[in-house]
Structures are given as structure tokens and as C-alpha cells.
Design goal:
The chain is mostly helical. The chain contains 31 helices and no strands.
Amino acid sequence: LHPDNIELQIVLGNFYFRQKNNGQAELAYQKAVDIDPQSIKPLMVIGGFYGATGSQDKALQKYEKALELQPEDIRILHAVARQHYRMNAREQAEKLIANILAKRPNYFPTRLLKSEILVRTGQFDPAIAILNELVEEEPNSARARYFKGMAFLGKGDSKMAAADLARSIELNPGLIQARLLLADLYLRERSYDAAQEQCREVLAAQPENYQAGLLLGNAYLGQQKTAEAKQAYEALISLDSQNPAGYFRLGMLQQRQKQFDAAMVNYEKALSLNPRLMDVFTNVVLVHAARGELDQALRKCDQKLETYGEDTAVAAIVFNLKGSLYLAQRKKKQAEAAFQQSIETNPNFLRPYYTLAKIYMADKRQDEAISQYTAVLEKDPNQAGSHMMLGTIYEMQQRYDLSEKHYRRTLEINPNFGPAANNLAYILASQNRNIDEALVFARKAKEILPEDPNVMDTLGWIYYRKGFYDNAVAELRDSLQQLPDNAIIYYHLGMAYYRKGETDAARTTLEKALSLDGSFDGADEARETLAKL
């Protein structure tokens, strides 16, 4: 059997690895190393094995041992660089990458690794520049196409992203992450059949892929196939009963069908698994509100604050919910106090600013509020929150010059103040001026507040203004999922559909906007567009 033959031990290790017998595989690979500790190949093979099975420290140890034996070997240097990156030691990885490319500027694997790091750190344009070269050199590189698709996705160019992701799958049908990204992209564009096709391909290869099952359920729901969606979400719960996502999505489906008792059971189960899931808790409050159980909803808010009040992100959301519940009870003073607490707890939480400003406007107290915030700024001009509140009130009064001034001042004080970046971007876009600057601010807001539906709306509207209608539709649909009764978002989405040439969708969406509110800013354009349709 030639037990001292390195190649045979590696073949044996590969056999065990394919059989998922990792213990025997490790023994065989280590035997190959022991036969000749000065041989590079078994060190690289066992390093790859450890990397694939999650023993990252051991992988690095083996690669570095190989590097000690051959310190100038580019392939080994590349393996060490990639391993550092896998272990989140990006700075060390980048130093090694620079070293490799200084010696071999055209070394394809390291240029690909460099582009991957650029993509994952949001440096999309330089990544695309490298990836274009790589694709030209090796048109059949599935990974180069995959990362190029990711880069375009990061830039918001969904058409280019879809093309590159689809090509990567053609080149390597087993590229699971590419299929999942493409499925998610199709889902956002309402290409539900295409999304389902990608999910099924993933599930055929990996029946226990949770993300594919979740996307499949969401695609069914998008087509109003509620029975299929329910089955998909129940399958997720069976697959992993400790993952709250399946319970949450099933609860949302039941809430939509007004099966409030069943929805509440699933929401409570999701919260028992992760009590900090605030989208789930928000829906619990909404179910109580739909049943008219406002006092019970308030009690649950107070209980959440008692337990998790030290978490400012959680507390701000709960105070905002309390404010909305008090408004439903017509208790404006308590509502105003709750919204103020929400802002004070987390100034980067966008929603309470507008609700508070609406209270001032409804009560004709905006001048009083302006005087109060101005007095605060006279004592301390660097109060970012007061500038933000003034900007919001002036915006609602359509005094956009003053609003812009205060938003810009907010960002001078705190460049990472997401709500100010969002609102400034929206003003610039709505007035159709400085669109490129608006896009910079909107992307900044998206970095800080990636899940905020108002930020999605702003970014979508800017994409519309720039003529990127596919991207606009994707962002605006995501926004509507969280704010399903917002007339302005329906208006923005309807205009994007109109420019895309999807006349039926445009008509339905614009009619929905006007049915919700006939006097929003843009209602006249919505009516004019409907007349053309």
C-alpha cells in the first residue's frame, strides 16, 4: 500500500474528505506532512483542508510553515495573504498583496483577491477597474464575474450586476452565493419566477440552505401565492427551529391575512429566540393596535424598556412606538414627550423627527418650536439635534433654503448624522439640483442607516432623477415593504415605473398614491402622468 508515499496519502485524504470523514482525512494529510516535513505540497494541502473545515488558525500555521521553507514562492505568499484576509487580518493581507504584486504585477489570483477586498470594503470603482482587466484576460473566470456583479450591486447598478452574476453562474453552476445574490436581486425587481428558479437550483444542491428557502418563500409571497409561502416558511421552521426568521416571516404572512392570534404566537416565538429583534417587536405592537389593545401595547413597550432600555437603538424604537400609540389615544402631550425621548436616546433614528414636526404643524406650534430650538442654539451653536429639528420643521414649511442650511450645519458638526444626510439629499433631489451631491449624501445615509425605509426612498428618488430606473424601483419597493401606506413612496415608485415603460404598474401605483393622499407634494404630477396613461 506504500504507506510512505506522499501522493498516495494525499489521495487517501481527498477520498476521506469527499466522504465527509474529516477525522480520517486529517490523519492522512498529516501523515503526508510527516513523511517529508520539508515538502511544500502536503503543507499546502493540509492548510487548504483546515481552511475548508473552519480551523483557520491551523490553516495559517501550515501555510506559514511552507513559507518558511520557500519564502519567495508567490503561490505560498498568496495563500498566506488569503488566509489573513479570511481571519479578518485585512491590514496584514493587504501588505502581503502589495508585496506579491510588486514582484508579479500580473499575478491573476492576487489581483482577484485585491478586487475582492475592494468590493467588500465598498471601494467599487477601483474594484471594477481591476475586474474588467481580469475578465478580459480570463473570460471564463466565474469568480471574477461574481465579484464584478457584487461591485455593480454595491454601486446600485442592478442591470450590470444581474448580467455579471448570471454569467458567473453559466461559468460555474455550483456558485451558490452568486445564485443567492441573483435571486435576491430578481426578488427586488419583482421577477418572482426567476428568483424562484435560482432558489430551487440552490435547494437542489443544498436542501438545507436556509437563505434559499427564505428567498423562495418571499418570492411566493410577492406573487400572492400564500399557501406556497406558508409552506416555505414552515419548512424553514422545521429546518432550524432556533432561527427566528422563519417564525417572523410566517407571522407577517398571518398578520397580512388578519390571522392575528396565529401571527402573535409566531412573533412571540421569534422574540423568545432573540428579544432584540425590533422589527418583530414592532409588529407585535401593530397587532395589538389593530385589535384596539393600545394599553396592552404600551405595557409591552414599558416592559421592553425595563429589560433593554440600556440599548439606545432598542430604546429609541420603543419610545417612537409609544409616541405613535399615544397619538392613537389622542394623548398629544405624552406622544410629544415620547418622540422627544426617542430623539434624545438615538439622534440617528430618523422617524421621530418628522412625526414630532407634524405635531407642531398640526397644532400650529411650529413658530413656538422654532423659537425653542433657536434659543438652544444661541446657548450652544453645536447642538446637532437642534439643527436637525429646525431643518425638519423648515422642510415641512417648504422653506427649503433654511432647511438646507440647518441640515448642512448638522453635518458640519457631525458628518455621520444619518438623518441629516438623508434629508439634505432628499431636498436636493426634489428640487432636481446638485443630483450628484445628493447621491453622495444619500449613499452616506444608506451606510449609516441601511435598513431605514426613508433612506431607501431618498436613494430611490435620486436614482429616478439620474435615470437609473431599475435601481430606483428596487430601492422604492424595499422602502414600501416597511412603509406600505406612504403615498409619496407610491408616487415615487409610480414615476419610476412610468419612466421604465411599465404602464400598468405605473397606473396602479400612482392611483394607490392618490387614494392614500390627494394633496402630497407631487400629487399634481401624479395626476398629469395618469392622464397620459
